[in-house]
Structure formats: structure tokens, C-alpha cells
Design goal:
The complex is a heterodimer of chains A (232) and B (219). With 232 residues, chain A is of the alpha+beta class. Chain A has helices spanning 14-25, 42-47, 67-77, 88-114, 124-149, 162-166, 168-181, 192-201, 205-208, 214-225, and strands at 5-9, 31-34, 56-59, 62-65. Chain B contains 11 helices and 4 strands; from the N terminus they run E-H-E-H-E-E-H-H-H-H-H-H-H-H-H. The chains are: A alpha+beta (232), B alpha+beta (219).
Chain lengths: 232, 219
Amino acid sequence: MAEEVLVFGAWGSPFSRRVEMALKLKGIEYKYIEEDLTNKSPSLLKYNPVHKKIPVLVHNGKPVAESLVILEYIDETWKDHPILPKDPYERANARFWAKFIDEKCLSAIFKACWGACWGEEKEHEKAEIEHEKAVKEVSELLQFLENELKEKRYFGGETVGLLDIAANTIGYWLGVFEEASGVELLTREKFSKLCNWANEFVCVTAIKENLPPRDKLIAYFRNRFGAGNASK
Amino acid sequence: MAGEVVLLDFWPSMFAMRVRIALAEKGIRYESKEEDLSNKSPLLLEMNPINKQIPVLIHNGKPVCESLIIVQYIDEVWNDKSPLLPSDPYQRAQARFWADFVDKKVSGAAKKVWSTKGEEQEAGKKEFLEALKTMEGELGDKPYFGGETFGYVDLSFITFYSWFHAYEVLGNINIEAECPKIITWAKRCMQKEAVAKTLPDQKKVYEFVVQLRKMFVSE
């Protein structure tokens, strides 16, 4: 029986790209549907009525939402090229760091690049202190990841795993945010391991083929969030 | 499989309760170390340097953090009895999705109910009840979120029941009136020994939250 796999995503979203990266790694054919997030399709709203967000994976008509949940589903359904280790402790570890990246890193990075919550009014002086604080916080968070990577080629060890895919925000999007906002966060002098990892990560075929064009992404973020929070 | 199991714990934490239920379901013997969160132990800071939060499960000296991650770990290590997650990948994905919903939508809104006042609290109450109604919709006519048996989503959500009295008094809401099916489900879960023995008394939790609220709200 033919298998149908659909992915609802947005070209610039690291979350929907994660899903595509995992499918590509496993050699799974799928149909991609680009969503206009300002005008969500009836299909998206039908498949993810709770959050109304991308990505959604639809496998033989059955939807799965939330990128990390989708990644685990993909790994459990298609057994080639496993992205989670077998050992329960290592699995817990990968899940922990993926959650860490999503819950702590992304918002801290945004704050450092573009100031407090988008749209909030801020006084100049206060903005300076907030900015320094935000940059320091990102530095501390990245240090945790740097330490976690240790001497491994990838977070997953010898091959790209779930955590590497989840860290696509660090491996690619962070560089884009830095360039778009002018704020430097992932410096080679402080984070040589992470930088090396990022370089390796974006060269992996399944990853490379699923990265949105850099210039287009930079332009998009500059346009949407302004010129950025770099000290002049 | 066995070995030494230690739980860094805090009796009113609905997140720590999840782990205690999972351990009870699996019949795992463990040592509970109660933390004073205003004076965190060196052990906690060593075992969870990133978030410095409970619960932390320490299994043969190695820490696992984040309640849902711990529960999945327990399910995978002690896989010979009482499975917490379903075996079918699609059912597992649904279970993970809904547990994540509890963390993302129920938890944050619930906090607003007891830790804020005025407009912020009104918004929090609305959010909280909406989230509960969404859960109610997902439950449907099933006895448990897991279907016929108590499972991962039930475990993730039932621990908040111990805080319901606190939400009701401090938020001036009537959860049973708004979401009767949730209360029916909760009482059904409370019939299970693992749940009944784990959840603290709602009045005791209320007294604790009243004190905690003082740190957030001046009244």
C-alpha cells in the first residue's frame, strides 16, 4: 500500500526544517506544503486545531504536531538511520538538551539580538543594560552546549542525531540572527567546539539540502524585527 | 535494571509528583530527598546545574532531569511491567503531544491563577479554563486519556488536581462547574493507589500556595 507523508511547514522555520531534515536522513519521500502563516490553510487548521502551527506531519492521513514529538515519531516509524541512541540514559540526555535549546536558548538569543519582547517600548538606558544581560545569558547557555558537545563530531556521536537536528537553530539560524542584527554571540574564541560542529552540521547532505537560503533569511529577519540591538 | 534510585523531591511540586506516580506504578524502591527550594542542596546544584530545579532522578549516581523526560526514562528502563506510554508510534506521538500541551498551556496559565491579581489574574483564569476545556475535549468519553487504562497523559495532568482547591479559592473559580468531565476523570484517577498515595492533600497544598502567593503578590 502506498505511503503518504505530508509536511506542512514554512520556508524560514527551523522547526519545520527539522522535520524535513529527519525525513531526508532516513530517505523518506514526502510532499511539502508551504504555509502562509498570515493566512493559514484550512488543512493546517484541520490537522493542528489545538495550536494552529507548523510543522505538522501527516502520515497516511494522521497528523502529528510539535517538532520534537514529530522527530521521535519519525524515528520510531522508520527504523533506518536511527536518530536517537538505544541507551535510555543517552536518550534522556538528548531529549533534555533538545528541550533546553527550544525553551531557553531561542528566546534568549532573540532577546540579545532584538531587545526585549518584540513591540515593547524600551528606554535607551534600560535597553543597554537589558542587552548586556541578554548577551551574557546567551553566552552562559552556549557554554552549556559547548561542554555537552565535548570532543564529539556531532551531538549524536559519529552521526547526526535528534539533538543535532534540534540544534539547527544554533547551527544555522543563530548565524543568520547574528548577521541580521549585528550582534555577535557564537564567537570562535569562546565556542570553538560549537563553531566546528556548526560547520560540520551544515555540510551534511540531508541538512544542507534543507537550509533556507541565507540571504533571503537575513533579509526576512531584518525586515521583521528591525535593524537589531547591537551597541553602536 | 534496579540499582540505586534517588529522587530529589519537593512535596507540593506537581512535576515531582509525576515522577513519584511513575515510580509507584512500576513498584520501584527509591529514596526521596526533600529539597528546601529557598536553600538548594549542593547535591541538587551538582546534579542539575543547568536549571537547578527538582525533580531530579539519580539512578546509579547519574542524574536525569525534567519530569516528563524522567518519566519516559523510567518507562524505558523498567520496561517489564506497567507500561506508561503506548507501544504504537502514533499513539505515543499523541501522548507526547498532550503531555506537552499540559506543560505549555495548562501549567503557565495555572501559575497566573495563583500568583497574580487583577487583570493579569483574570486573563490567567480565562486561559486556564480554556486549557482545561481543551483537555476535556481530548478526553471525550474515554475513562482515561490513555483509553481504557491510566497512562502517560493522565500521569502528566492528574498532579495538577492536587492544586485545584488552591486555584478555586485564590482564583474564585469553580472548576467542577466549568469542566465536570475533568473532575470525574480526576476522581477516577484518585482510585488508583499510585495516584492516591502520591498526591498531597488539597488543603495542605492550598496552605502552602497561600504562603507562596505572598512572594508574588502584595495584597
